[in-house]
């Protein structure tokens, strides 16, 4: 199978069949990751650089593990600590990187569009690991894989995305991906965090969580992004939890087999009840982390095939 | 002084609202006579216009020349050459330099530089408050004596209403004009786009178009209080127009401008985070653009300006949110405005009313019109010649134009300031 894109910058550019191809390949890596010897050589000889301009533990670890399991030489660069402090621009950084001849570049940046900009200037395949409040494509893909495995399909599902949609790249990528796969999407949250413009993406918007959760198949919680809030989106965390935190009573309104998802890291007691998050019968949060590694292996594998072809 | 006669010219006369073939005679730097049809015999130098348009030179309010402080971005020389090549015969400069033009001494420096280097008329504006910080008013009287034609803090909104009302009261007593940027700064702080589906899709921090109306509403209330003379630098949204209309109907001394970019581009042009399209206020929706064009047609919006804002490559080659705002436009103002002529939305007399006559009137200048005795500041252009804009051909030191690579129609053939040719297309 040939992947028709040089980079993975967002879900916006992918077709239904692109998405399915990544998920199908990821399934094989789920199997590999469950064996005692978790190793493949498809990225052997290739160099992967993880460049994080914003703090991340989980996503960076997931990409690192994915690269190492596929045999790539992986290097991590924590950019917030180094050159931007010295005044180097993103373009300068790109030029520096080009001289190191990486094959795969994984980038996270606090500004929307910054990864697109970098991709225009470097000579390798770029994977967006989250840019500002724009996109986080591998998160949406891992969510899709988790849903497909739990529900047996990835279409005609009622999916609720709850919480801080405005500041969330996870929400945007999921909205686009799940929309492309023909699901019905509800956005639930206070109007300060779920702006009405999102209705134009074909989503239904609810500010009453009890209404919004009725009969949904999937409940996707979002993290309250305290670090992106510059003042007054919600009155207090306890009021937020009361109205929009997911607990057993609210979940009871969803379908009886509805699954609970969260991209992590969780604010327990703010957007989700701790016991519920740990309930292995309802919560697939651990599974999401597992799928994350597999999806990232699949994405890098597909992009690397193009890299090798071009070489 | 050379005497000239332009014959076989398509005279664009915004004052008379006419567009007809005729002739125009220049003597001693002024328009000596003009008329329709064939030219009378004259023993002066004849310029046969071959049916091309002859219009009053553009008077552009709100041009940024980056002296003092950032001459590498734009000097009086480069801005003057760009203006001449764009048919702009008078540039009215902004004081948002480094440092700001907020004392008679800096104003004199800028004026001296302009007189030495620029081939077109340069009229400076000065800051309304010291350092454009919105705390203390500048020496408005002295600055006026030194040649300031208007007072403005540019895109800095004077948030302290008391300071602003006093400054308006004081400028009124001096008979000076205040230019302001109508915007509610609490809403617009930190934003890079107009709220809507596009900004949501791109994940850009966005400001509601309502912020412009809120800023304008406040300023209008202050005008009712003080009776000052006020010009809104850029009205770019449909929602602000009814407020402007009411204020004019109520007899306040208010006029408004808009920028060429808001008239010819919309928010979708930003596309994949193209920072040359990042301007202030941000590009608006297509509905807003159409409403603003209509307001120019009816005269509710008085002036069109380039809002020429040079930025170097480094300040634009950044992620969209971090990139600097602004675009150069002295040379693209006329071809861009001609898009509205070719799309049959605005005729040429209307365009020159907004680009020459009204700005001149607002600043009490004699130019901006084709009438006997007016300065012979003229632009000769062919409205139909097609071209693809290559930004590296621009005469500005900075080439941050959103029209790079775009098809345009209409080129300046020659520009005259006080009867002297300051530009002729090769």
From TrEMBL, chain A:
GO terms for biological process: 'de novo' pyrimidine nucleobase biosynthetic process; 'de novo' UMP biosynthetic process; amino acid metabolic process. Keywords: Pyrimidine biosynthesis, Transferase. Residues 157-302 form the Aspartate/ornithine carbamoyltransferase Asp/Orn-binding domain. L-aspartate binds at residues 86, 169, 223. SUPFAM superfamilies: Aspartate/ornithine carbamoyltransferase (SSF53671). One of its GO terms (molecular function) is amino acid binding. It holds the Pfam family OTCace. Signal peptide: none annotated. InterPro entries: Asp/Orn_carbamoyltranf_P-bd, Asp/Orn_carbamoylTrfase, Asp/Orn_carbamoylTrfase_sf, Asp_carbamoyltransf, Asp_carbamoyltransf_Asp/Orn-bd. Pathway: Pyrimidine metabolism; UMP biosynthesis via de novo pathway; (S)-dihydroorotate from bicarbonate: step 2/3. Carbamoyl phosphate binds at residues 58-59, 108, 136, 139, 264-265. It catalyses: carbamoyl phosphate + L-aspartate = N-carbamoyl-L-aspartate + phosphate + H(+). It comes from the Bacteria. Residues 6-148 form the Aspartate/ornithine carbamoyltransferase carbamoyl-P binding domain. GO terms for cellular component: cytosol. Its EC number is 2.1.3.2. Belongs to the aspartate/ornithine carbamoyltransferase superfamily. ATCase family. Heterododecamer (2C3:3R2) of six catalytic PyrB chains organized as two trimers (C3), and six regulatory PyrI chains organized as three dimers (R2). Catalyzes the condensation of carbamoyl phosphate and aspartate to form carbamoyl aspartate and inorganic phosphate, the committed step in the de novo pyrimidine nucleotide biosynthesis pathway. This is Aspartate carbamoyltransferase. It comes from Ruegeria conchae. The lineage of its organism: Bacteria, Pseudomonadati, Pseudomonadota, Alphaproteobacteria, Rhodobacterales.
Automatic annotation (TrEMBL), chain B:
The keyword Zinc applies. It comes from Ruegeria conchae. This is Dihydroorotase. Residues 51-237 form the Dihydroorotase catalytic domain. One of its GO terms (biological process) is pyrimidine nucleotide biosynthetic process. Pfam families: Amidohydro_3, DHOase. SUPFAM superfamilies: Composite domain of metallo-dependent hydrolases, Metallo-dependent hydrolases. The keyword Amino-acid biosynthesis does not apply. It comes from the Bacteria. InterPro entries: Amidohydro_3, DHOase, DHOase/Allantoinase_Hydrolase, DHOase_cat, Metal-dep_hydrolase_composite, Metal_Hydrolase. GO terms for molecular function: allantoinase activity; dihydroorotase activity; metal ion binding. Keywords: Pyrimidine biosynthesis, Zinc. Residues 343-423 form the Amidohydrolase domain. GO terms for cellular component: cytoplasm.
């Amino acid at each position: 199978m040939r992947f028709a894109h040089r980079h993975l910058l967002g879900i916006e550019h992918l077709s239904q069949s692109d998405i399915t191809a990544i998920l199908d390949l990821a399934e094989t890596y789920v199997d590999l990751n469950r064996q005692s010897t978790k190793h493949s050589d498809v990225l052997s000889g290739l160099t992967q650089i993880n460049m994080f301009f914003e703090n991340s533990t989980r996503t960076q670890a997931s990409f690192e593990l994915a690269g190492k399991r596929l045999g790539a030489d992986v290097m991590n660069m924590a950019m917030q600590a180094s050159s931007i402090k010295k005044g180097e621009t993103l373009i300068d950084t790109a030029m520096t990187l080009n001289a190191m001849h990486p094959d795969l570049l994984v980038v996270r940046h606090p500004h929307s569009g910054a990864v697109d900009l970098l991709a225009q200037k470097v000579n390798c395949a770029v994977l967006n690991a989250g840019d500002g409040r724009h996109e986080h494509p591998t998160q949406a893909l891992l969510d899709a894989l988790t849903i497909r495995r739990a529900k047996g399909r990835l279409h005609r599902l009622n999916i609720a995305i709850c919480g801080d949609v405005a500041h969330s790249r996870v929400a945007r990528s999921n909205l686009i991906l799940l929309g492309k796969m023909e699901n019905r999407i509800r956005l639930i949250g206070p109007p300060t965090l779920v702006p009405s413009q999102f209705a134009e993406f074909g989503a239904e918007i609810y500010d009453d969580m009890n209404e919004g959760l009725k009969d949904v198949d999937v409940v996707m919680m979002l993290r309250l992004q305290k670090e992106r809030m510059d003042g007054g989106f919600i009155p207090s965390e306890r009021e937020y939890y009361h109205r929009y935190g997911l607990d057993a009573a609210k979940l009871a309104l969803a379908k009886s087999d509805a699954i609970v998802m969260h991209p992590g890291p969780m604010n327990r007691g703010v957007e989700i009840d701790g016991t519920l998050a740990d309930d292995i019968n309802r919560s697939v949060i651990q599974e999401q982390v597992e799928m994350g590694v597999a999806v990232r292996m699949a994405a890098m594998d597909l992009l690397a095939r193009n890299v090798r072809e071009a070489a | 002084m050379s005497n000239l006669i332009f014959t076989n010219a398509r005279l664009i006369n915004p004052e008379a609202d006419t567009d007809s073939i005729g002739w125009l005679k220049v003597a001693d730097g002024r328009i000596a006579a003009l008329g329709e049809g064939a030219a009378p015999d004259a023993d002066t130098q004849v310029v046969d216009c071959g049916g091309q348009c002859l219009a009053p030179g553009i008077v552009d309010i709100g041009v940024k020349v980056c002296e003092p402080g950032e001459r590498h971005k734009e000097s009086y020389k480069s801005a003057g050459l760009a203006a001449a090549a764009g048919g702009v015969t008078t540039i009215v400069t902004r004081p948002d330099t480094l440092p700001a033009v907020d004392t008679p001494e800096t104003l004199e420096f800028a004026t001296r530089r302009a007189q030495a280097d620029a081939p077109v008329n340069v009229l400076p504006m000065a800051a309304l408050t010291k350092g454009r910080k919105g705390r203390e008013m500048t020496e408005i009287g002295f600055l006026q004596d030194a040649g300031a034609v208007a007072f403005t803090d540019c895109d800095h909104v004077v948030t302290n209403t008391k300071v602003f009302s006093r400054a308006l009261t004081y400028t009124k007593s001096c008979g000076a004009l205040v230019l302001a940027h109508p915007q509610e700064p609490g809403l617009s702080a930190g934003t890079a786009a107009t709220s809507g589906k596009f900004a949501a899709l791109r994940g850009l921090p966005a400001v509601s178009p309502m912020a412009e109306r809120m800023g304008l509403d406040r300023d209008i209330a202050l005008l009712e209080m003080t009776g000052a003379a006020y010009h809104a630098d850029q009205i770019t949204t449909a929602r602000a127009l009814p407020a402007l209309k009411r204020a004019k109907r109520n007899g306040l001394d208010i006029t408004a401008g808009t920028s060429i970019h808001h008239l010819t581009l919309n928010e979708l042009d930003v596309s994949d985070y193209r920072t040359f399209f990042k301007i202030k206020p941000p590009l608006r929706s297509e509905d807003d653009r159409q409403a603003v064009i209509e307001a120019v047609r009816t005269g509710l919006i008085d002036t069109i300006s380039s809002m020429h804002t040079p930025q170097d490559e480094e300040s634009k080659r950044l992620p969209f949110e971090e990139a600097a705002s602004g675009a150069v436009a002295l040379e693209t103002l006329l071809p861009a405005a001609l898009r509205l002529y070719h799309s049959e939305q605005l005729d040429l007399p209307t365009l020159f009313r907004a680009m020459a006559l009204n700005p001149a009137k607002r600043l009490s200048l004699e130019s901006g019109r084709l009438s006997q005795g007016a300065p012979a500041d003229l632009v000769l252009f062919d409205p139909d010649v097609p071209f693809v804009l290559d930004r590296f051909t621009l005469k500005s030191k900075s080439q941050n134009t959103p029209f790079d690579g775009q098809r345009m129609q209409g080129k300046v053939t020659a520009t005259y300031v006080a009867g002297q040719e300051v530009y002729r297309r090769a």
